[in-house]
Amino acid sequence: MAHGACDSCGNAKEECECEMYCSRCGGTNVQIAMWVRTNTEEVLDDFGSFDETDTKWCEDCEAHVLLFSKDMKRAMRDTGS
Predict the structure, then answer these.
(1) Which residue, among 75, 55, 80, has the nearest Cα to 65 in the 3D structure?
(2) How many whole angstroms separate alpha carbon 13 and alpha carbon 81?
(3) Maximum Cα interatomic distance, the chain, rounded to a whole number of Å
(4) Where are the domains of the chain?
(5) Can you give the pTM of this predicted structure?
(6) How far is CA 42 from the centre of its chain?
(7) Which tens digit of pLDDT belongs to each residue from 14-67?
């Protein structure tokens, strides 16, 4: 994987569309609760949906937050939201 590449898709971070952002601070230091098979560490599914805050967390804000994609972040910036 290239330096500065997305951990999920391997594309350069500036080209990546899959990274998720905090709705409060815009940072990428975020977490989501997941269902994981404990014996195989296989990730099965996320916990809840992206419009729920109780299963999403931003380390920088130290709060439960909504998450959004780069496309959503760009649209918010373009509309002044």
Answers:
(1) 55
(2) 23
(3) 46
(4) 20-79
(5) 0.64
(6) 19
(7) 666 678 889 899 899 999 888 889 999 998 887 666 567 788 999 999 999 998
